[in-house]
Amino acid sequence: MTSEYFRHGYNKYLLHPWANFNELGADENKTVITRGEGIYIYDADGNRLLDGPAGMWCMQLGYGRSEIAEAVSQQMTQLAYSSPFNVVNDKEVELAGRIASKTPGDLNRIFFTTCGSTAVDAALRLCHLASNIKDQPNCKHILSRESGYHGSSFLSASITGKERDKSAMDVLTDKIHFISEPCFYHHPNFASEEEFCDFLIDELEDKIKELGAENIMCFIAEPILASGGVIVPPENYNYRCWETVKKYGITYIADEVVTGFGRLGHWFVSEEVMGIVPDIIIFAKGITAGHIPLGGYAVSERYLQELSDDKNEFLYANGFTWSGNPVACAAALASWDIFEKENVFDHVKEISTYFQQQLKTLEQIPLVGEVRGVGLMAAIETSVQSSNENDRLEKDYAVGELVDRHCQRLGLLVRPFINLCIISPPLVIVEAQVDELVSILKKGLELTLADLREQGIWQDASSSQNTPSANRALNS
Ligand SMILES: Cc1ncc(COP(=O)(O)O)c(C=O)c1O
Predict the structure, then answer these.
(1) What is the pLDDT, as a whole number, of residue 20?
(2) What are the GO MF terms of this UniProt record (predicted)?
(3) Does the C-beta of 257 come closer than 6 Å to ligand 1?
């Protein structure tokens, strides 16, 4: 890169998401990406990196997909924009119909937004409106989960439960309640997953009784808690939550921003994997295979019918300049065609077993506490011992940075989140590339362990102390 701006350093003008103000102006070790091809991206010096997180859980089909580029280009020439407030465009109509054909039950009404956060916001604002229309002004409490991630707008950040990610930024706290994360590994005091699941369901029901079901506007949950550490809940947990919530007549919102559009080999997992029919499903990311921002939700027809009133007094006064943008919808339709034509979701179902099995072998490295995942999403959680939480957090950050640095040098982009390496490659990954990914991760983790030993941060315990179950106890 030769432009004047690059000569000044990439960190001169950009304010990055999740910025650390102490680092403003300093070119720390962020990688500048300039192109992508297949499941690989290339940095400004031409180094090739396997894209471990698929952008951010979104580049389902990898990079350089000319079919999507052509559809976008053609749409830009044909109709680059249409106002969502005054008219409709043919692409959003087509896309809404296709989505409705894949959603469970009567979730046939599709509202488009610009991304996942705006979709979560828009859905919650619909629920607020519903309570007002039904003359239940106190029915505004929201149930969410610790370690759940729902976005970065004021409202979606407020219902996000990632404790270790909390900053000094304000969030709404009134009427927002978090129940425990369904992570068995983090709760070693339970003898079995079944017992843990019973506890979680009891906790949910107790919270409903405490607040009064009539005051609870909705329960929102990711089927698999993605950014919170790829937490795969105990078997039947999602079903039992849904059953409990519905028993009390509470609205169930499934946040499928990550699980939708193929990450587990399904359009949506709510019904096909978990056997539930939510009232609202949120989607984003994979819908355009990451090519253009687009999000939205599908809502039950019955839910909306309950809101119609004879006097036509209430408007859903909510929408965005780029809701249902024809170019974004064209990218989604072109991605959709490839998902079908190339049987991408069947491929995901097939390769997931191999992917998970190979990653699981990393548990042999003493630094690794647990490898967990499902479909093409996984997390490697490292486990460093420490007597207090602040010290452990500092060490966990150091470990994450080391793994990240070593893997990048070896040709793999990981997504470190403190002590978690989150891996969710493009859905089109093949076995040889899984091998490449796992062997780099293995080397990166081993080099990190060697560094930690050298720095005195890691003390080797007897081998039995480094098993996943012993690490579970460590993390309690
Ligand atoms: C489950 C979930 N919901 C919502 C969001 C927010 O989406 P966006 O970043 O597109 O606003 C994310 C983003 O990672 C997510 O993982």
Answers:
(1) 82
(2) pyridoxal phosphate binding; transaminase activity
(3) yes
